[in-house]
C-alpha cells in the first residue's frame, strides 16, 4: 500500500499451504477492515493525478510489467505451482496469458476515443468524453492467481483508475509478486495496493461500504456475487462479475472424434477441472458414444498425477480438502443413481496432498449432482443424446451461462448452436477459446460485464456528455 510493504494493524499472520504436500510455504500479514480503509485512503489521494497521466505513459508501465513477467516466468510459475498446485507447464502458460492482458490493454488505453455529435442548434456543440470511473477494486480467486488479476488490473490502469486487489487467501503469493513487478516497472506509489486477509466478508464490506470505491470486479461463486451485488446497490457502484459455470460440451456424430477427444481432455482436465469454464457435462450423440468414451478413457488414463513442481506431471492436487470432499460427493451420488465409473472414482491414498485422480463416469442423467452443480474437479461425466434439438434444450437447462462447447463438421449446425446456446462464450470445435483480445463473460447467473477485448476497458470508463454553448 502506498508503495510500502507493511504488516497488518492486526499484527496477525496466516499460513499459505502447498496443496500437494500440505507444507506451510509462507506466512502473510492477515489484513482487517482498517487495513482496507488505509488502502482506499491512499488510492483516493492519488486517483486524480493518475487519471490525468498520459495514456502513453500508462501504456509504457503496463508493457514494462508484461516484459518483466515474461523474463521472470520460471520464478513466477514456480511460486504459482507451490501455492495453487497446477503443474509447472500450466503455470508457465498462465504467466504468459496473464502478461498478454497487460500487453493488450497497454494498447487499448491509447485508443479510448470520445465523440463529437452533430447538434440540433447552431449555437451549441455536443461533445462526449470518456473518463476513468475512479477507484476500483478486484476480488480474485485462487484458481488463476495471476491471470484473474491482470485481466482486471490491465484495463483499470490503462483507463486511469487506481486499483485495490483482494486476492484469495489460498493463493496470495502470486498477487504480491505482481505488485512487486509493478513497483519495479515504475507504477506510482498508491496506484496499486494488494490487501490479503482471511476475513473476506469484512474486507469486502470495507470496499462495498465506501462510496469512493466506484467499481468492483469480482471473479468467484454466484452466491458471493449476489451478496456483492446487493451491497453495491447502497453506493451504486459499477460491478462486473464472472461467476459460476456449468459448461456443457457436446459431441455430434459427424465430429472429428480425435479432435473432440483431445479438446475434451484439455477443457475438462486443465487445472484439475478447477476452472469456471471447465466442461462439466459432456453430451455425446449415441451413435459415437462408445468410440468417444474409449478414446477419452485411453487419453485420460495416461495422465500423470502428482506434485506439479515435478516435470512430466499433468494433474496436480485440488486446492483444499473441501474440494476433494465435493468431488467425492458428486461421484458417489452419480454411482448411487446408476452411473458407471470407468476410470478413477475415489480419492488418492497418498499420505500427503489433496489429490483426486482423473475420473470418467458414464450413464449420467440430469438427476445427478454432476449435472446440476459445478463439480470443480477432474471428473468427466458423460451422457448420451439423440437429436440436436434435445441436446440444446438439455444444455440450456441451467441457471448458469458462462461457457459451452460443441464439436461438429456441419457448418449450418455451427451457426445454429452458436445462436441458440444460452452462454456468453462458445467454443465451436475449440475447447480453449480464452484469449486477451476476446470478450470473456457469461449470461444468466454466470455474471455481468465482459473482461478482455476492446469491451473490457469500457467497464472502467464513464461517459461524460458536454454541451457547449457558443
TrEMBL record:
Record keyword Iron present: no
Cited InterPro entries: Ald_DH/histidinol_DH (IPR016161), Ald_DH_C (IPR016163), Ald_DH_N (IPR016162), Aldehyde_DH_dom (IPR015590), Aldehyde_DH_Superfamily (IPR050740)
Entry annotated with the keyword Oxidoreductase: yes
Annotated signal peptide: none
Domain annotation Aldehyde dehydrogenase: ranges: 5-466
Gene Ontology molecular function: succinate-semialdehyde dehydrogenase (NAD+) activity
CDD domains membership: ALDH_F5_SSADH_GabD
Single GO biological process annotation from the record: gamma-aminobutyric acid catabolic process
Alphabetic keyword roster: Oxidoreductase
Family per record: Belongs to the aldehyde dehydrogenase family.
Stated name of the protein: NAD-dependent succinate-semialdehyde dehydrogenase
